Amino acid sequence: MKREYVFMGVLLALMVLAVPVAAEEKVSYSIVGLKNLHCTGWGSSGVGLPGFTIVLEVWDDDANMFVDSGYSQITNDKGYYRFDDLPEGHYRVTEEGQKYWTLLTGAEGANEVTIPWYCPCGNGCPKFISLQNRPKLFRGDETAWAAQEDPGEYRFVDRGNWATYVTYDVGEGPQEYPLFAGQTHLAGYLNVYDDNGKLYVTYQALGTNEDPDTIGDYTVKWTGLKEYHLHVANTADDIPRTPGRGRNAVPGNPIPGQFMNKDSFNPATASSGEIVVDISELNDSIVIAAHAVMEWEGYYTEVFDYAIDLGWQFAWR
To answer: Quick check: is 268 in a domain?
Structure first.
């Protein structure tokens, strides 16, 4: 009888060990998202941007900063990315810097997430984090001169320096002369009129309402005036210029720094305001040398054309 009790005890123990134990279900955590165009100034905010490298950074307590986690993805043709089977940690979603795009992440921390997180459905409940971009705005400037009508008309010298001047007949009424930057780019206007022995001159930038121009690799608009130098005289030879060479030499390039009227603006201004010059001692036909530094704002042409070709409504700012 004692042997039977022992046998039954062993059998019962074996039966207990044979009961299967439910394995702990592994929860998979994922971060997915969309790289899209920022809505400010654009007609389609939900349009995805393909080909951007999305980087997942993880918080390092020892370094007290986010470091590279080793995870990265390239957005697909719709602008989506996805990171799956992520281990526990505090993550930040960002991107490899794009030279001609600006990354916008919204409120601070909006692109961060901590794993694990509570998920009632049990499958990790993927977190969706969108990253928005907009084309990066660039600024630059170019030297400009007022011309009579066309670029290069009435040059001070025939070769080399392309600086130009304009002529004005006292009493002829208001005149408008083009300001050409970089020799050929219409960047603004010089408005001139006279009254009772005074000449009134105003520099005016072209502004953002005009069609865009192209400077090098950028599509731009001429948005402001950074500085001007203005001189009025009877003839072009009376304008401050470098001395000529040789017995019969004529004066050379103009010297804007020696012009009678000058000013600078920071930030650039759309208009110089009226500049008043006394011309009571000058002839009825005078020469005006109007030099300027014109500022442009613009976008990398490839990015600009990319938007236009897809029908997005491009706003300049």
So the answer is: yes
**227-283 per-position pLDDT tens digit:** 999 999 999 999 999 987 655 566 889 999 999 999 999 999 999 999 999 999 999
Residue 24: what pLDDT? 53
Cβ-contact 135, 304 below 8 angstroms: yes
CB 206 within 8 A of CB 222: yes
Query: Are both 100 and 230 inside the same structural domain?
Result: no
Tens of pLDDT, residues 82-101:
999 999 999 999 998 888 98
Domain total of the chain: 2
- Clarify whether residues 256 and 179 are in a common domain: yes
Report the alpha-carbon angle 234-239-245, nearest 5: 120
The 10s digit of each residue's pLDDT in 140-166 is 999 999 999 999 999 999 888 999 999
Which among 185, 188, 169 is positioned nearest to 177, based on CA atoms? 188
Same domain (yes/no): 264, 120: no
Cα–Cα distance, 31 to 39 (Å, whole number):
23
Q: Measuring CA to CA, which residue among 285, 172, 175, 192 is closest to residue 235?
A: 285
Domain that holds residue 221: 139-243+252-298
Count other C-beta atoms under 10 Å from residue 229's C-beta: 21
Does this model's pTM top 0.85?
A: no
The CA-atom distances, in angstroms, between 230 and each of 15, 73, 199, 274 are 105, 56, 12, 12
